[in-house]
Amino acid sequence: MKPNYGLTIVKDFPVKGVNFIDINGLLNDPACYQAAIDKLCALAQESVPADALKTAAIITPQARGFLFGSPVAYKLGLPLLLVRKKGKIPNKPFSFHITNEYDSYDMEVDSDLLAQHPHYIYIDDIFATGQTLAGIQEALNKKGKKILLALHVTAVPALKGIRQSTPALKNLPTKEIL
């Protein structure tokens, strides 16, 4: 059995029927947080061919994805692109729409920075329905870019069927550390 690294479930948050995975316990324990970052780095290095890794960048959605994508980019020496909610990217934002299990919103990424890299490693905290990842994957495809690997701290097993039936996630390698 995998350790939970301080992750807890909060029922009916942020809306009734959603079981929210709280990462605060993991972030509050330096050893757990360091271990999580180290495992994400190791998975990226094991899963992406070395030549592709050299030309890749990390792409991560706000806000909790930033907590994991940023240190991985730092440790692997890779560029970092932040995906933010509309109105937060000041320089030539490339906008796209995302609908997930309890919300719908527009996201943006800096189009000049996006143009600089052919490949991406996506990093986020929780792999739930996969709709954030699917929206970002579709947006990158429109720009001729590719996600090589999607890494998550953990996944919600009960939502695996939804993820598997999402066309944008077909043939996209995904892995989680917990």
Describe the structure in your own words.
This protein has one domain (33-176): 3-Layer(aba) Sandwich (Rossmann fold), CATH 3.40.50. It contains seven helices and nine strands; from the N terminus they run ββαααβαβββαβαβαβ. The longest helix is centred in the N-terminal third of the chain and has 18 residues, at 30-47. It has a seven-stranded mixed sheet, sandwiched between helices. A two-stranded antiparallel sheet has the order 1-2. Helices cover 35% and strands 31% of the residues. The mean pLDDT is 92. The protein has helices at 24-28, 30-47, 50-54, 64-76, 111-115, 131-142, 160-164, and strands at residues 8-11, 19-22, 56-61, 80-85, 93-99, 104-110, 119-127, 146-155, 174-176. The protein is of the alpha/beta class and 178 residues long.
List the defining traits of the structure above.
single chain; 178 residues; Rossmann fold; seven-stranded mixed sheet
Number of domains: 1
CATH-derived architecture: 3-Layer(aba) Sandwich
Overall form: globular
- Strand order in the largest sheet: 5-6-4-3-7-8-9
